[in-house]
Pentatricopeptide repeat
Amino acid sequence: MKSAPMASLKHHFSPLGLHKKPQLSIPISRKTGTLTVTCGLRDASRQPLWKSRVLSSEAIQAVHALKLAKSSSKLEEVFHGRVCRLLKADLLDTLSELRRQDELDLALEVFHFVRKEVWYKPDLSLYCDMILQLGKNKQITMAEELFCELKKEGLVPDTRAYTEMIGAYLQVGMIDKAMETYKSMKMSGCAPHKLTLTILIRNLEKAGEEELAMTVRKDCAKYVEYPRKFLEEVDQKHRKRVVDLV
């Protein structure tokens, strides 16, 4: 569900509604007898959860209860009655599943709830996951606020954090901000990895920013072990994607 932008990052319960009926399917493999839980909407893209962690029944119920809450009062009731009783692992699984289903508003609500738990310690990976989700939904202002918030919690942005912000800016064509973040990344001592460079090269060339793309290409000699081979792979994959789109 693509949600409308939230006014701020302050914890609140905004009216939320569902346009599709949620479905829970629990297929059992006849060969192995293993249980695979899939929690999502009928026409949503699904990924087998057994590849990471199988959701507990408590986490599944929490996800559905949150999605069925059609008013701020009902949402608050779910948080106080069901979500607050979740164990740490189940609460984090609930957050992950909401992100997987692209339930942005609900994921943000749970993220803020997690940060208020007594066991919570500032976690850079959680921030990166949320910045990635916000970037996909083109909620740049909130992504920027989270990037500032992680610093206030005493965390230091790493290569992934900078890369997620660069990707978020590129999602909405903010080339200058993406390059500014890339510069800050290098100045902070964080070395761009292959994903960072690939994202920049592809998006800059797609936007017609050949000079900027060339600058990033030259950086590959400094940050990649075999720059020529790496750039050849980037170009080959990029050409293949272009051909597939034609």
In short: The first helix runs from residue 57 to 68. The chain has eleven helices and two strands. Confidence is low (pLDDT under 50) at residues 1-51, 242-246.
